Amino acid sequence: MNEAASRNLVERLVRVEHGEWPKLALAFTYFFLLLGGYFMLRPLRGTVAANNSDILHWLYTATFLTMVAIVPLFGFLVSRFRRGQFVPGIYAVFIGTLLLFAMGFEDEATPQWIQRTFYVWLSVFNLFVVSIFWSFMADIFRPGQATRLFGFIMAGGSIGAILAPMVTRLVVVDHGATGVMLTAASALAGATAMAVVLGRFVRQERHNHHAPVIGGSIWEGAVRVFRSEYLLYACLLMLLHNLTSTFLFNGMAVLVDREITGFAERTTLFSTLDQVVQVIAFAFQFFLTSRLVNHLGMPRTLALVPVLLAGGFVLLGSSMGLVLFAAVQVAQRSMNYGVIGPAKEMLFTVVDRETRYKSKNFIDTVVYRGSDVTASWLFKGLTTAGFGLSQIAWLYVPVLGLWGFGAWRLGTIYNRFRAATKDKPGG
Predict the structure, then answer these.
(1) With 90 as the cut, is the pLDDT of residue 397 above it?
(2) Which three-class secondary structure string do you get for the chain?
(3) What is the pLDDT of residues 35-93, one digit of tens each?
(4) Cα separation of 121 and 98, whole Å?
(5) Is 209:426 a contact under the CB 8 Å cutoff?
(6) Cα angle at 290 between 336 and 354, to 5 degrees?
(7) Poorest-pLDDT segment among 180-194, 300-314, 318-332, 366-380
(8) 140: exposed, middle or buried (Cβ count in 10 Å: 0-12, 13-18, 19+)
(9) Taking the domains of the chain in order of start, what are their residue ranges?
(10) CB atoms within 10 A of CB 297
């Protein structure tokens, strides 16, 4: 097979058109490094959660309150500075904070307040930097491009997330949490550099025109959410998804706390589960998601996940154990990263720039963590009242039904907006 034929085969597989490769490759590498850095750290958060499974509802609450405090600051930065300034600046702040945690962690001997602060910090970090990334992508790719390419870009993140747990397992044994954090900081520094390079490439592509400062009120993102049926359905989707995922996360922490001991052993388990999740998610992102959206449409694609998960929750209600519970959580997270994630980011390509950055960030952070708080306190209340994990699983089946309805409605409104939106980026 000659070079031209090979290139055409790859372009058909990825569904990329001529001229799109440079920007796509930069975005792919950027997300590879960003999620790679995060997923090196995520097993540490899982271990901290298992060590503190009795107070997870308070950690969720602290995370939510931190988000509420940060969002106005983010709104100020977006309103006053260009994208090329506030994106790398925010990443640099998170990297500096991570280096401070690296100095204070001593594995099992780490003081509880440092462990809990790290849990809150990583929960904030994850949502903030990923939300900013996808706001950036929605800003530079047209809606039609997003349908074809966002799954592939997200696959770059999944490759980073597949490799990251292996790095964590190798590093944590000899160098502990500090070594993992320093390695992750290096990956995040690379992601920051890629953000700068991609921004300059887009500026050159647009004949050296800077993306304009977005301006507006620092509260505009939240105000727009409550004025828009479309964004309110996006919030409902977030709430119902998180009710489900938080139950699975908390339940997993409880089961691991009961059945597995040791910081390194727990970290190894969570890193292995992360790796399995990302392998499956990669398969969805690279081969299936864009084709699902094209062939099934956005409403059916968004509704597919809760329908499939309902079957898993019926199984959990009928039989409970660590292996089965882990399998359902792996399925939920795989479809979250592999299907919901790319589809959700496509939803924001049909709105204006202020909504992409401010309202999207509000939904991805405050609404996301607010629903986490609701779910974690609900979990705590049900377990305190004497409900077992199997009984709670049955209670969640109607939640999944409501999620399916909301997802269908959101996808329908997206189709209407897409039809009314010119196929061009916001600037």
Answers:
(1) yes
(2) CCHHHHHHHHHHHHCCCCCCHHHHHHHHHHHHHHHHHHHHHHHHHHHHHHHCHHHHHHHHHHHHHHHHHHHHHHHHHHHHCCHHHHHHHHHHHHHHHHHHHHHHCCHHHCCHHHHHHHHHHHHHHHHHHHHHHHHHHHHHCCHHHHHHHHHHHHHHHHHHHHHHHHHHHHHHHHHHHHHHHHHHHHHHHHHHHHHHHHHHHHHHHCCCCCCCCCCCCCCHHHHHHHHCHHHHHHHHHHHHHHHHHHHHHHHHHHHHHHHCCCHHHHHHHHHHHHHHHHHHHHHHHHHHHHHHHHHHCHHHHHHHHHHHHHHHHHHHHHCCCHHHHHHHHHHHHHHHHHHHHHHHHHHHHHCCHHHHHHHHHHHHHHHHHHHHHHHHHHHHHHHHCCCCHHHHHHHCHHHHHHHHHHHHHHHHHHHHHHHHCCCCCCC
(3) 999 989 988 887 888 778 788 788 888 888 888 887 777 767 766 767 677 788 888 99
(4) 9
(5) no
(6) 70
(7) 366-380
(8) buried
(9) 7-420
(10) 16
Round to whole Å and give the CA distance between 196 and 88.
7
In the predicted model, what is the mean pLDDT of residues 169-191? 89
- 214 versus 375: the higher-pLDDT residue is 375
* Spatial distance between the Cα atoms of 316 and 407, rounded to a whole number of angstroms: 23
Whats the size of the chain, residue-wise?
427
Work out the average pLDDT over 258-287.
80
Pick from 43, 397, 64, 50: which is nearest to 251 by CA? 50
For residues 324 and 254, the answer to whether their CB atoms sit within 8 Å is no
Residue carrying the six token digits 């500090």:
178
Q: Is the pTM of this model over 0.85?
A: no
Class of the CATH domain delimited by 7-420: mainly alpha
Measured CA to CA, the distance from residue 276 to residue 331 in angstroms comes to 10
